[in-house]
Task: inverse folding
């Protein structure tokens, strides 16, 4: 895998939708610790390193919506593209019980290099892609683990996250998902807005309609599940966008 900060599919597709996948991969660039953050391979395969299955769902969903899509090409443990530059969790030192040695000892220069080579190029590309359509809507695709260590199981199949500063698509999408019979979280398994996160930066501040979809990752671990959930979500998103008249 290359050390480019992102990849894009369907840049010229005509849809209003732009599909984003902030945590697409667990890749560690070779210039960061020789490609090793100092944690076990089984930890790098967990949700702490990336959103398991989200990239496949995002790719299939974008194809069904005839929409462009952008994917980060670095692990969230290297630097989290879904955090603002001044967020204290930008470089996670401890995540779901795992200490991240390469971040525990990271210097300000290490942080700046990761910002300049990964975080900032990703957001520059996302911003440019968003601006290519005058009426852009953003759909961010993420996934969540069925259970954090020491916590209760999470019952939701789907979580719809949104800011109360913009409720044009979030609540209608929750209602539409529940009509399908899906166990759907309303800003669950966690609240849907952080200052400086991707949606805040590219949707809320410019005034673009937006929604963030979280899928429980045991449902989308393989390609069949990814295709299935993309096929389920595409018509619901299309319907909600039409009915919202935004």
Result:
């Amino acid at each position: 895998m290359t050390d480019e900060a992102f990849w894009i599919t369907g840049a010229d597709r005509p849809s209003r939708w732009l599909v984003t996948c902030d945590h697409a991969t667990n890749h560690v660039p070779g210039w960061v610790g020789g490609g090793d953050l100092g944690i076990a391979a089984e930890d790098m395969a967990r949700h702490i390193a990336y959103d398991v299955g989200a990239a496949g769902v995002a790719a299939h969903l974008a194809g069904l919506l005839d929409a462009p899509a952008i994917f980060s090409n670095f692990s969230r443990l290297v630097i989290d593209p879904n955090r603002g530059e001044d967020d204290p969790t930008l470089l996670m030192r401890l995540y779901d019980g795992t200490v991240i040695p390469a971040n525990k000892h990271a210097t300000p220069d290490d942080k700046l290099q990761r910002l300049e080579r990964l975080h900032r190029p990703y957001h520059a590309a996302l911003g440019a892609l968003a601006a290519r359509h005058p009426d852009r809507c953003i759909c961010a695709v993420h996934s969540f683990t069925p259970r954090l260590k020491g916590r209760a199981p999470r019952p939701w199949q789907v979580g719809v996250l949104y800011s109360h500063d913009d409720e044009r698509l979030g609540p209608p999408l929750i209602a539409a998902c529940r009509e399908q019979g899906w166990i759907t979280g309303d800003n669950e398994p966690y609240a849907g807005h952080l200052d400086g996160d991707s949606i805040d930066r590219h949707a809320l501040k410019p005034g673009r309609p937006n929604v963030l979809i979280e899928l429980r990752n045991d449902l989308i671990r393989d390609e069949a599940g990814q295709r299935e959930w993309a096929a389920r979500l595409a018509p619901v998103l299309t319907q909600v966008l039409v009915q919202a008249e935004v």
User: Anything to note?
Assistant: The chain is about 35% helix and 15% strand. The domain at 6-244 is CATH 3.40.630.40 (Aminopeptidase).
